Amino acid sequence: MRIEKAVIRQMKLPFKTGFRTSFGTTVVKDFLLVELYDAEGRLGLGECSAFMRPWYNEETTVGARYVIREFLLSELLRAEEIKSPEAFFDQTAWIRRNRMARSAVDCALWDLWSREQGIPEWRALGGTKNVIESGVSLGIEKSPAELLKTIEKYLAQGYRRVKCKIAPGYDLEYLRAARREFGGIMLMADANSAYTLDDIDTFRAMDELDLLMIEQPLASDDIVDHRHLQAAIRTPVCLDESVDSVDDARRAIELGSCKVINIKVARVGGLTEARRIQEFAARHDVGCWCGGMVDAGVARGHNIAIATLPNYVYPNDIPSSDRYYADDLVTPSTFIDREAHITASERPGTGFEPDWAVIEKHTVEKEVLTRADF
C-alpha cells in the first residue's frame, strides 16, 4: 500500500437536538475527516473525534489536526510502502497519546487496505459475526418524566439496551423511574467520571436496580479507586476513559477494577488497538462492547466493523444514522431492524461510500497534501 494523496477536512455538523452529559451540552460536532488515496485512486476514510474543548480527554480538534498533518500524514506520504495498517500503527507508536489523531489515520488505512484486498473491513479485522446489536445512549434530561418519554420513543424503535447518562442529582430518581416504568429492560448508567468514592452509598443503592453495568463512575484516569468501588458493589463496573490501550486494560483487569470494558475506537487509537484490547480481555473473561463518540457516518462504519469481533458481547453504542444528525456523510445510511440489529456489509472496506454533496456542505476548511509536500 502506497499513499499518494491525503486530505484533511475541518467539519461542522449540527446535532438535531443538544446532547447533554455530566461535562456539558453539545449542539454542534466539530471534527476532522481524513481522506487517504492510493495510486489507483482508491479512497480510505477516517474520522477524528476530538472535541474543540478538552473535556472528554486531553485532545482538541486543533491539536489533533497538527499531529495528523505533521507526524502521521507526513510519514505516510514519505513512505514507499505501508505493509499493513497494523504495521504503520506500530511504526508510529513513538507518538505519545494523541490517540484520536492516530485513530483517524489508522481507520482510514484499514478502510483503504481492505478495499485494496477486495474484502469487507470487518472480515479483514477478523470479525466472526455479520450481525451486531445496538443500544441507545440518552443524554441527561430535565426530569425523570422527560427521560421516560425519551426511553419509550427509542424502545418503540426497537432498541433493547438503554444507557442513561447520569450526574449527581440526576441519578437514582431517574434510574428508579426507568426501572419502575419499563421493568426488565437492559438498563445501564454512564457517569462520565462525575463521582468519587464519597458517593459509594449512591452506587450501593444502584445495586437494587439490577443495572447491566455502571460506566466510568470515577475519575477518567483512575483504576485504583474503581477497584475499591467494584469490590463494594454487585453491579459490574465498566471502564471507558480509564482504558486507552491494551496495557491499561491489563492493569485494570489485574487489579479487578472492572468487569466490562467499553472500547471506543477513537479513544484507544483506532481499530488496531481496539482489536488487541478485545483479544486480551477475552483471555481474562472480561466482556467488551463498542462505545461511540456521537459519531458521524464514517466513524460509525468503522464501529460496525470492529463490533463484529468475538469478544464484543454487549449491545453497542452504534445507533441509526438519524439518531444525532439530519445529514449522513455516507451512503447507504444505517438503520436498525426491529430487534436493534445492524448487518455488516459484504462490500469492500467499510461498505459505505462518501456522500460528497453532504460532505462539502459541512466542510469548513480543506487541506490537500501530496508526496511533493513532504
Automatic annotation (TrEMBL):
Record domain Mandelate racemase/muconate lactonizing enzyme C-terminal: where: 144-236
Molecular-function annotations in GO: metal ion binding; O-succinylbenzoate synthase activity; racemase and epimerase activity
Required co-factors: a divalent metal cation
InterPro entries with a match to the protein in the record: Enolase-like_C_sf, Enolase-like_N, Enolase_C-like, Mandelate_racemase_C, Mandelate_racemase_N_dom, OSBS/NAAAR
Enzymatic class: lyase
Enzyme Commission number: 4.2.1.113
Record SUPFAM superfamilies: Enolase C-terminal domain-like, Enolase N-terminal domain-like
Keywords associated with the record: Lyase, Magnesium, Metal-binding
Pfam families with a match to the protein in the record: MR_MLE_C, MR_MLE_N
One GO-annotated biological process of the protein: menaquinone biosynthetic process
NCBIfam families per UniProt: menC_lowGC_arch
Annotated protein name in UniProt: o-succinylbenzoate synthase
Source species: Sutterella seckii
Organism phylogeny: Bacteria, Pseudomonadati, Pseudomonadota, Betaproteobacteria, Burkholderiales
